[in-house]
Write a structure and sequence with these properties.
The chain contains 3 helices and no strands. By secondary structure, it is mainly alpha-helical.
Amino acid sequence: MNPINKKLKSNNDQQQQQQPENNETDQQKSIEDSITNQLKNRMLISGEWLRLQKILMNKLRGSNWEENLRCEAEARALDKDNPHYLN
């Protein structure tokens, strides 16, 4: 076996070893997303989600973040009213 074949074979082995690791991380991410969605759904049903949103909005009221968000929303609304036509 020449050295090039050995090198290619070792690269293939490394890829095969990395694939199960990637599958495990993908599976873990999927499980985390599922748990997050379940918790969010439970919070929506109980009204807890809306309560937390209101608390957060009260804390952010008057902040730069709120001002930037409002300006962005106004700009998008104006763009919809007056679309720019390219000639």
